[in-house]
UniProtKB/TrEMBL annotation:
Chief localization: membrane
The protein, known as: ArnT-like N-terminal domain-containing protein
InterPro entries assigned to the protein according to its UniProt record, in alphabetical order: ArnT-like_N, LipidA_mod_glycosyltrf_83
Originating organism: Polynucleobacter yangtzensis
Keywords: Cell membrane, Glycosyltransferase, Membrane, Transferase, Transmembrane, Transmembrane helix
């Protein structure tokens, strides 16, 4: 038995967690998923029409990619795209994440009888990298996780009354699941209903006849209500046939088609195998992955003495794991709704968990922070930038890095503090990641006000390596008419300036671009590269980080004639 989790530790880590989720909320480099760009595009295009439906998009095949709730959320938070910032798009996601953590705290506190355990469960969930990565950006995951989790939190909180409820709880659960479907996909009714069915089965002492007689109608009512809420999309959208074709058949039914050789082979091997699904589900815990593994080992050893609530948490995890192993496209991201259950189990077994999982977490944190310090020092004190400017960190950055490293070292060498400091360091690592790219969020990585003014209403060609990547450039060049070309051609300055009248090109740091006599540099900023060759990676490991990690982006005005846009493919689309 180890020292219990104290109130003081809980409050301090909670304050750190709140700061972590708000710090850098508007950062272009925040950990996220590439879906954010297409979602932003759909919000902006739909808001421009002044109508909630139908959803609008200029991307081929991507319009009704998700139900409208997430896009309505973006329209509302940006005031119909009139206040277009990443912070405005993302703050509802943080609110959903915070509410999920709060209700997880209430549920675990209620059935465990300990406030510290409830706080610990919510903090552990917030410390998971998947929660940080998917719980802040403008994505459908935060509302999905919240609305799916709420009925299960209700069961853990009220217990017997929810199982015996003949109408109120099924009504509440059906509406909550309906909002989850309206935010992500109707397919989630399958694992959610399956998990509830297992809950009722356990409550009836594993008696199937009792479940059929007393609870089957509740499950049917819940599923019908949830699907009824989702069906509102078809009722309100003026083109329901497009919703059926693009979302139901394309986005969901297509996930059962064989992706490589055959369904069975895909199940057992390859990038969509059941084994990789298990691995990526555990990896959702991020730095706490080995802590999660040790918790599951403890559950297995104590399997004959599990409490009712622990069994219910494991049944929820099993239900989602079984259902999402069936589609041929398998991803740990689909298991995000069960990560609060994993966090609750870690909190319940916290005092009994061995230290090795936490020490592995601390070692990983030590490696990450040390690497960030090394990279940051290399960037600030080397002369790689030439005329690009200076990569300068504030004193607060180095204080943060020093404190983070000290916390990790103390956690490694003080057994009594290992667990608490491992949890604390998760949040410190996320802050360190954000702080390490802070100079690029300032004037180094942005165009000047003069450049933005000069590009108002003009056609500008920009490099695209992902669909709707131009949505990021709309934050950098608001008011410009953007068109995309292949990002791999960004260094072909001669070819780009010969074809486009106003184009963004890339040049290595310290190397001025060779331009035609009548070409003019309109603006300049620094950008971080995403793809590198093996030789470049080797040189970066040898210390030449800035040489390959960053490029200068120049906005060039040329004498080239305006291309025929009707015959020119926009790569961003």
């Amino acid at each position: 038995m180890r020292a219990s989790f104290s109130y003081r530790s809980a409050v301090l880590i909670l304050l750190l967690g709140v700061f972590t989720y708000l710090y850098g909320l508007d950062s272009r480099f925040a950990p996220k998923n590439g879906d954010e760009y297409p979602y932003m595009h759909i919000v902006r295009m739909t808001a421009d029409t002044g109508q909630w439906l139908p959803l609008q998009s200029e991307m081929n095949g991507i319009k009704n990619t998700k139900p409208p709730l997430i896009f309505w959320q973006g329209i509302a938070s940006t005031y119909w795209a009139s206040d277009w910032t990443l912070a405005n798009l993302r703050w509802p996601s943080v609110l959903y994440t915070g509410l999920t953590a709060f209700f997880l705290f209430l549920a675990v506190r209620r059935f465990s009888g300990k406030t510290q355990t409830g706080l610990l469960a919510s903090l552990v969930w917030l410390s998971f990298f998947a929660t940080y990565r998917y719980g802040r950006p403008f994505l459908a995951d935060p509302p999905e996780v919240f609305w799916i989790s709420l009925p299960f939190f209700g069961i853990l909180y009220w217990g017997k009354s929810t199982f015996e409820s003949k109408f109120f709880f099924p009504l509440m659960a059906g509406i909550c699941f309906g909002f989850a479907l309206f935010a992500k996909s109707f397919a989630y009714i399958v694992p959610a209903s399956f998990a509830l069915g297992l809950y009722y089965w356990r409550w009836r002492q594993w008696s199937i006849p009792q479940v059929l007689i007393r609870d089957l109608y509740k499950l049917i009512l819940i599923a019908v209500l949830a699907l009824g809420v989702f069906a509102l999309w078809f009722a309100m959208d003026p083109y329901p046939e497009a919703v059926w074709r693009e979302f139901v058949l394309g986005e969901n039914a297509g996930k059962f088609a064989a992706r490589q050789s055959s369904y069975l082979m895909d199940l057992l091997r390859g990038g969509d195998s059941i084994w990789l699904l298990l691995l990526t589900t555990i990896a959702n815990a991020g730095l706490f992955s080995f802590v999660l593994i040790s918790t599951l080992m403890q559950c297995w050893r104590a399997r004959r003495f599990l409490t009712l609530e622990e069994v219910l948490l494991l049944l929820l995890i099993a239900a989602f794991l079984i259902v999402f192993s069936l589609p041929s496209q398998r991803s740990g991201r689909y298991l995000l709704p069960v990560m609060p259950a994993f966090a609750a189990l870690i909190a319940l077994y916290w005092d009994k968990l061995p230290l090795w999982g936490f020490r592995i977490a601390l070692l990983l944190q030590f490696l990450v922070i040390s690497l960030l310090i090394w990279i940051g020092g290399n960037l600030q004190f080397s002369q790689f930038m030439g005329d690009a400017g200076q990569w300068i960190y504030s004193y607060c950055h180095w204080i943060l890095m020093s404190v983070s490293l000290l916390v990790v070292l103390v956690g490694l060498f003080r057994r009594s503090q290992t667990k608490v400091l491992a949890l604390t360091a998760c949040f410190l690592v996320y802050c360190a990641l954000t702080s390490s790219l802070a100079p690029l969020e300032g004037h180094l990585g942005r165009y000047s006000t003069e450049t933005i003014t000069q590009t108002q209403g003009k056609d500008v060609w920009i490099p695209c390596d992902y669909r709707a990547k131009d949505e990021e450039y709309r934050l950098l060049l608001p008011g410009a008419k953007l068109h995309g070309y292949l990002a791999k051609d960004a260094a072909d300055i001669g070819g780009l300036t010969a074809n486009y009248p106003l184009v963004a090109v890339h040049s290595p740091l310290g190397v001025a671009p060779t331009l035609c006599e009548s070409c003019q540099i309109v603006g300049q900023r620094m950008e971080m590269r995403a793809r590198h060759s093996n030789e470049e990676i080797a040189e970066m490991l040898a210390g030449q980080i800035g040489k390959h990690l960053f490029v200068n982006e120049y906005l060039i005005a040329t004498p080239a004639a305006m291309p025929d846009l009707s015959n020119l493919k926009d790569v961003c689309r």
